[in-house]
Design brief:
Largest interface: A-B, 85 and 73 residues
Keywords (chain A): Cell membrane, Membrane, Transmembrane, Transmembrane helix
Largest sheet of chain A: 2 strands, antiparallel
Strand content of chain B: under 5%
Protein name (chain A): Cobalt/nickel transport system permease protein
Distance between the termini of chain B: 64 Å
Shape of chain B: globular
CATH class of chain B: Mainly Alpha
Strand order of the largest sheet of chain B: 1-2
Largest sheet of chain B: 2 strands, antiparallel
Pfam families (chain A): CbiQ
Organism (chain A): Geodermatophilus nigrescens
CATH architecture of chain B: Orthogonal Bundle
Order of helices and strands of chain A: HHHHEEHHHHHH
Membrane topology (chain A): Multi-pass membrane protein
Order of helices and strands of chain B: HHEEHHHHHH
Radius of gyration of chain A: 23 Å
Number of strands of chain A: 2
Number of domains of chain B: 1
Oligomer: heterodimer
Structural class of chain B: mainly alpha
Number of strands of chain B: 2
Chain lengths: 259, 234
Amino acid sequence: MGAGHGGPLGSAYVARDTVVHRLPAHVALVAVVAFALVVVATPVRAAWAPAYAGYAVLVLGAAALARVPAGRLLRGLAVELPFVVFALLLPVVARGPRVEVLGLSLSESGLLAAGGLLAKATLSVLAATVLAATTTPQDLVRGMQRLRLPAVLVQILSFMVRYADVVAGELRRMRVARESRGFRGRGPGALKVVAGTAGALFVRSYERGERVHLAMLSRGGDGRLPAGPALAVPARTWLTGLALPLSAAALLAAGMLGA
Amino acid sequence: MHVPDGFLDAPTSVATGAVAAGTVALALRGARRELDERTAPLAGLTAAFVFAVQMVNFPVGAGTSGHLIGGALTAVLVGPWTAVLCMTVVLLVQAVLFADGGLTALGTNVTLMGLVAVAAGYGVFRLLVRLLPRTRSGVLGAAGAGAFLSVPAAALAFVGLFAAGGVADVPLGTVLAAMGGIHLLIGIGEAVITVAVLTAVLSVRPDLVHGARHLRRPADLATRPGLRAEGALR
């Protein structure tokens, strides 16, 4: 498989040569999932604010080590916007004792829940953004393969990753063709045109799938994707990769003991 | 809209993760029946299609536009088991590459959008296909109703999970009303887009639509009137 084509899937990757980029994909995946687990397991109480601050320092440190630009991190955070709205509503609708903040009567438990929600979601999104910025989609698929994701699922995933940019490119060409013929996306007539595009895209994608299958058969495919021997990962690499979740877990443990 | 990390408590996340894993295991077997040994390339390309089409903004009317979630549409196009796999793979890619939906909430998201949306959408579709006339409009109407109901069904399942393991003490009626109301509107958009896309596919390649297989008839062989054999040969 080739490198990223600058399509929607490859756009998350930031090519650098850092210690974070050099981590094997499955180590990085385990590290980020473990970090998210630690963050999610942290209790939501005002006394835990230092722990959350510590997590933020850790994940931002990892981002700095990987030389991920700040703009990429901010753009990564945009996905949680709908939940920011939800979190902002929580103090207004939640039950329990009220406190006055800037003339608004807000629920104490709602404020706490909203703060916890935003902190946890933001920290996990930051960690996942660093993962996507330092690992190519193809490597991530290979990492999941090493983590024993079912073989058929790995194949579907690798076909999707391989062809997502191709299919999205097809969609872009259809849009250019539409617009160069004077199409304006307004009104019910436009729905018919855009839906026709999506329908054609499905037919083309499905037929491409059939062609890919025939091409595999004609090259002696037997339903398995050949994979090279998996390189052994030295303990040092695991330790480097797991430094992030391990230090987060240490913070959590320190908080638990202190409480 | 994907559930992020930390939205539901750990037991609920673990439970939905187990449900999602079981569903995917069943779907892997079911998809083999739908697509036989072509499963991987066809499901992969269909997942790429779902991923791409979720980026398209459709004008839905009244000056608004929406994008497709696609559970019901995919189920009608390629069959429910393959649809579950496609949605799972799309959610996995979105969580890992775009941080859209938490990594620890992946099971929750697969349960809501892979299992509940597809099951509700396809269940309603199959039921109505049986009741409605065996025509193209019958299939379209059934698919529209399935797509419409798949969205509030997923929202209701989310409210159920929130009641079981939400991290905030919010009156359930408020959440139910807000989520239900918003998602009924989103469901209308989903239904309009699903019917429009399905109409387009049915008019070009009706043989590709899994949910319209019962409309397929063997072609009748007939001589064309007024055309004699020697005329055609000359």
